[in-house]
Amino acid sequence: MKFILGSGAAFGCSDSSGLDAHQADHPQPPGGGGPRADAAAGRMRGDPHAQFSVPLPPMNSPTSRLGRWRKAPVQARVDDTLRAIFEATAQLLEGEGLDRLSTNRIAARAGFAVGTLYQYFPNKQELLVAMAEDELERGLQALEGVVQAQAGAPREAAVRAVLAVWLRAFGGRHKVMGDVIRTVLLHRDVQDVHRRFSPAALRVADRLITVTGGQGHPSLTPELRFVLGHALLSSVRAALLDEPALIARPAFEDALVRLALGLLPVA
C-alpha cells in the first residue's frame, strides 16, 4: 500500500516502469485515458494486493464528502480512471515528495491528458482530500472482514489485527499517508475534518470491543468508547505528521496494542 489504513485499505505499491515502456509505444489520444491508464487499471484489478478496487459510492453524496469532486464516479470505467490517478499520485508522493507534486506530473504518470484529471479535481489539494476519504472508506470496509476473521481469536491477536488496518494504510507507504493527512488538515476547516473522520474513531473502538467480547460489559461507557477510539487514531495521525517512520516500527504497534488492551474491558 498504502488515510487513511491497511490490509484491505491500502494503495498498491506498483512499479510504473512497465507502463512507461508501453506508453512510449502507444501514445494516448488527447483527453483520453490511453493504454497506459488501461494497463494500470487492469493490473490493479488483477493483483489482489493492488488497491483502489473498492467502489466509491459511499462518498458520492454531497452531504457526506469532504472532497469537492467535479465529476462523481458512477461507473466502472470512471472508477478505473480514479484508481489510476490515485495510484500515480501515491507513486509521485513516495518517490518525489509533496513539493514536487503537480497535476501535470500526476496526469503524465497516470497516462492521461491533464484535462482528464481536471474533470474530477480542480487542483491537487482536492485530489489528495479525495484520496484520504477513499482510504478511510476502504479501511472501514476492511474492518468488517477483520472482525469476522478474528472471531474467537486470542484477545491481543484480535486487537493487533484491527489496528493493522490503519497501520498498513496506503500500502504501508507512510510518507504518502503523512502528506495526504497534512494536506487535509491544511486545506479543510477543522470542523469539516472532524465531522467526516471522527466517526471512524468510534467505529474502530466498536470493532475492538466486538473482537475482544466486551459488548455489554458494565464498565463499557460512552466515555470509554470515545477515549479508546480517539486515543488510538490521534496517536497514528500525530505519528504520520511528526515522524511517519514510527508507523512501521514494531514498538509503535506494541504501544498501541497495550493502550487498547489497557482501556478495553475484560470480558
UniProtKB/TrEMBL annotation:
Gene3D superfamilies: Tetracycline Repressor, domain 2
Ranges for region Disordered: 17-68
Location of the DNA-binding region in this protein: 102-121
A Pfam family the protein falls into: TetR_N
Keyword Transcription regulation among UniProt keywords: yes
Domain HTH tetR-type residues, every copy: 79-139
Protein name: TetR/AcrR family transcriptional regulator
Species whose genome carries this gene: Ideonella dechloratans
